[in-house]
Amino acid sequence: MPVRPRRTRRPLFAVALVLLISAGFLLWPREDAVPEVGARDLTLELPAGPGDAARVSIDATLYTPERTPAPAILLAHGFGGSKADLAEQARGLTERGFVVLAYSARGFGASTGRIGLNSPDHEVNDARELITWLAGRPQVLSDGPDDPVVGVAGASYGGALALLLAGTDDRVDAIAPMITYNDLTHALLPNSAGDPPAGASTPAAGPDAVPGVFKQSWAAALFSTGFTPAGPPEPADQASADQPDADQAEPAAPASADGPLTCGRFSSAVCEAYTELATTGRPSAETVDLLAARSPSSVTDSIQAPTLLIQGRQDTLFGLEESDATAREITEAGGTVRMIWYDGGHDGESPGPDLLDEVGDWFDFHLADRGSDPGTGFEYALPNTGPNEEAPPQTVTAAAYPGLAEDDGTAWENLRLAGEPTPVLSPPGGQPASVSSLPGLGLGGLPAGGAGGLATDLPGQVATFTSEPLSESVLIAGAPRITLQVSAVPGQPRTGSTVLFVKLYDLGTGDDRRLPGGAVAPIRLGDLRADGSPTEVVVTLPGIVHTLDAGDRVEVAVTTTDQAYRGTTQPGVTLVGLGGDEHLSLPTVAGTPTNIEPPTEPLLGALAVVVLGVAVAVVSAIRRRQTADFDPELADVPLSTEGLGKSYGGGVAVVSDLSIRVDPGQVVGLLGPNGAGKTTTLRMLLGLISPSEGSVRVFGHLIRPGAPVLSRVGSFVEGAGFLPHLSGLDNLRSYWAATGRSEESARLDEALTIAGLGTAVHRRVDAYSQGMRQRLALAQAMLGMPDLLVLDEPANGLDPPQIHRLRTVLADYAATGRTVLVSSHLLSEVEQTCDHLVVMHRGRLVAAGPVSDIVTGDGEVTFVVDDPAAAGLALRTLRGVEEVAADENSVTARLVDTPVSTVVAALVAAGIAVDQVGPRGRLEDAFLQLVGGETAP
């Protein structure tokens, strides 16, 4: 009797092992153990500064980690805040292993003294004393005597303190200023008229012209905040900055008043400067000097500490131009800068957990020598235009902030505007006034005439200049520029300088009219020429990050009033027209799109990994049973099918008689309406289901479930499952390890480079957005750099810039000689991404071949020319050119055995300028014709 082969238990063991490992992942603790943080309230008595009646008591809290000594971080708060606002950030940094000193600046919270707006002799000197105090703490790591390892962070008022301190105290080792100013005169009295500084090629560089127009609404709000009387200090340990033992100092004496009651908690010098500006709108030389001395611009040429600048794109108080100037000045002095523009600011959200994590990473590397180098790159947030307004915005990352290197600079796109010179009225007293935003209330940029009807320009006070609808979308990242001609109207009354406000509207479809960022560019000009001859002026509009969609129009409005500013109160009429080449210049910054958004169903990824693990084990168990059916003639063909078909119960055919061939180096699009059989086809190609008839071959090998040749195929078909508590990189490593192949064969670096994941691959997947998970799934499919890449709807969850990046990724991958098969419902993207198409309808093949052949069909070609009528006459004289038709800006013809190059040469010889040549048809038209009008899924 024949001996029956002994059945091995290895497949069963493999299945059990994978299930146990996957269950372990699911039951893994969702949060790491949080280190214990010590917190101790202190009252630190600091030496008196010039004009102080007594020593100043600073209310502070010292946070200490489990392990000391450790690097220290000094945390400063925003204007009107106190140390209480810093508690969450302080604890987060302490949990990372830092000693943190959070404090209330003089005049705020329970601290005594008068508010000096970051006076070098007062608030900045206070911070220097606090660093000296930290140097004497045994918990703080030291670089030497009286020199602690210390970083400084803060937002707004506290961010400026970080810059001023770094520029005056070389003990500071790293700083992270957020949503702050470079120059108080520029910030509170902006003037957007004039050329940017010579040689400045950064995206948000503004002119140096000051003083300009007083930002009265913001200034009044800030003054009101600082006017609030101080409350009694809470009980705390008493300490002196010049006493080493923090427990043995005497209680601090409160500072006496040094100004009138109308000044609240402000110093008399600051109070007098505000009173002057609020009553006259114009600063004296003394006020200009006071603001300059309290501005980081006065010390940026001395900052050598690595600087992380975080600025908000929703900020009518301190716009993107402030961080732009700081970055330029620090870099010119030899310092290093990393820049982030996030979706928030004084008119939006404060920096949230993700940004505070970036701050922590910055200090980890520069103070504690741990973690990866954050580098000196640039990251900016895109507006959230999706249906879920609560979802975090998408971001774009670039290797560097443009214009900081000698061989680097901002790219610009010019948009032509049209509009006649228009007289605009400055009403007596400056009222009524236009409205652009409500400072500090987060309402900047609401749709004009839409919800709230916020942005309003008054008739008779505005001149407008408008573009044609855009042919393609443009992502603005920076401060647009325009040249205007401004002139007096002879015979009309006019006294004093001319004040105007320039703003950019995005005119969408219907009544959609949006003022991005809610910000305006105020300009103050000198006396205009009495004879009416124009003065030409370059205007730098507010820095924004905003996508202009195809079909949108752009409007530049120039008004004589704005509610947020103190403009001219004298009546007059001014003529405003376009100058220069009548273009609006739009800055753009190319980069790699990324997403950071928590998933809505975190456990689904883990469950998918369990399923994947089981599938891997089952495949491993049955690989021995596969036949080695091989066709040597197809050894170099990535994919071929012959008579492929699939039927289910009842004899229903989902795919019938499908025969296709995909060659090396191609990017092939698989198209078809709902029910065409695309997903079923992909599953048969990958061996996930068996065909009812016909065959699939990959590089000549017959495909059955578990076929060894499938190791040369990377796929993303039915969604990737990731373990949420692991980083993206750890997920990729775990996936590859489950395939049983060596880590070296994964070629992780190559896959990550092509997919463009950047530093986000080191973050936990539960902090990823849907789009970022798509990019991680693409990287997973590319592991091992497979010769054939099969992707189902890879653009799902990606925004337009990310989809643009995906095109480049797939093209780059195919350029290596490998092959990509993409199934997608985005016809326009398939047309731009793929070079070949396979079109299915009702389970059958209806077309296959190059995209250009399928789109052109009958050979019709469109030529965009400067003179369509003359072009039509010239084409009618050529042999092999038929059915010539001209329209407003182009001419179309059907070419019969006549090369396009011959036709173009004939048009140029006839003196006709040819701007563009392309097939008349669109993929959408060809697709609908092939499938009888049914739509893609």
Automatic annotation (TrEMBL):
The keyword Hydrolase applies. It comes from the Bacteria. Pfam families: ABC_tran, Peptidase_S15, PepX_C. InterPro entries: AAA+_ATPase, AB_hydrolase_fold, ABC_transporter-like_ATP-bd, ABC_transporter-like_CS, Galactose-bd-like_sf, P-loop_NTPase, Xaa-Pro-like_dom, Xaa-Pro_dipept_C. Residues 225-260 are annotated as: Disordered. Residues 249-258 have a biased composition (Low complexity). Keywords: ATP-binding, Hydrolase, Nucleotide-binding, Transport. Residues 639-867 form the ABC transporter domain. GO terms for molecular function: ATP binding; ATP hydrolysis activity; dipeptidyl-peptidase activity. Belongs to the ABC transporter superfamily. This is ABC-type multidrug transport system, ATPase component.
